[in-house]
Design goal:
The complex is a heterodimer.
Chain A lengths: L10 E4 L3 E9 L2 E7 L9 H16 L2 H8 L15 E2 L1 E2 L8
Antiparallel strand pairs in A: 1-2, 2-3
Chain B lengths: L9 E3 L3 E3 L7 E2 L12 E5 L8 E5 L6 E5 L20 E9 L6 E3 L5 E4 L4 E4 L11 E3 L9
Antiparallel strand pairs in B: 1-2, 3-4, 4-5, 5-6, 6-7, 7-8, 7-9, 8-11, 9-10
Classes of the chains: A alpha+beta, B mainly beta.
Chain lengths: ~100, ~150
């Protein structure tokens, strides 16, 4: 890891497109300003980890249990029709599914 | 090398066989959070399961996320202003069984946003605290349950 010492008001430039500025330091809290193009995702690390964890959890959910609970879910009808290009599916023959 | 050619036949475990065409393919330049290596997805819907759909990784079809339009859960759901063109951007939220397995939660905080015009997608994290990553989906009370 590259280690740089900066004072409040000073900046770090990354790749010419991202600027990190130390705004203030106050008793263990560092305020940081980040300027980056919209295509660069900037998140607090713990938030990123949380979403990663939830994504993994969504994959672990067995489809039958999910569908069972979903049947009792109170869902709203969506009035404006959203056309999504969904690929047509041919169900697996029962014996072909492990 | 990102050849945008759809595989001819995709066998998705427990879902079925899909013949995706180029029109069905969404390219995620950054993948999904935690799945950065998987960049190509299709949306699969099974009529009996609607409004649930599956976001399936074309290059690893065992990876399939249960998703739905957020408005089924929160009718007022809004993406950040820069995605506020409904003819281009469509959000899908990932559904999970909560730690209490009788409860479903939706990740409203980190929607998958499809760009229908470019056929691309990304998983956003919506700033602020308006939306929860584990928003409970209300269940119809079952009178017969003891």
């Amino acid at each position: 890891m590259l280690v740089i010492t900066r004072k409040p008001g000073e900046e770090i430039a990354i790749d010419g497109v991202v600027t990190i500025r130390i705004l203030s330091v106050d008793r263990g809290n560092v305020r940081i300003g980040i300027e980056a193009p919209r295509t660069v995702a900037v998140y607090r690390r713990e938030l990123y980890h949380r979403v990663e964890q939830l994504n993994h959890q969504a994959l672990m959910t067995a489809a039958p249990s999910l569908l069972k609970v979903l049947r009792r879910a109170r869902l709203y009808a969506v009035p404006h029709l959203v056309e999504l290009p969904s690929a047509p599916v041919q169900p697996n023959p029962p014996e072909a599914d492990e | 090398m990102t050849v945008q050619r759809a595989p001819r036949l995709l066998r998705i475990p427990r879902i079925g066989t899909v013949r995706p065409t180029r029109r069905h393919l969404f390219y995620f330049p950054a993948g999904l959070i935690g799945f950065e290596h998987l960049k190509r997805y299709i949306i699969v819907s099974i009529p009996q399961q609607e409004p649930l759909r599956w976001l399936v990784a074309v290059d690893e079809p065992t990876i399939g996320f249960p998703v739905m339009l957020p408005w089924h859960i929160v009718p007022s759901y809004e993406l950040p202003p820069e995605f506020n063109d409904p003819t281009t951007y469509v959000p899908l939220v990932i559904i999970t069984l909560a730690s209490d397995p009788t409860q479903l939660v939706a990740n409203l905080k980190a929607p998958v946003v499809l760009n229908l015009k470019e056929q691309t997608g990304q998983q956003l994290i919506v700033p602020g605290d308006r939306y929860s990553a584990t928003h409970p989906i209300v269940q119809v009370q079952q009178a017969s349950q003891g």
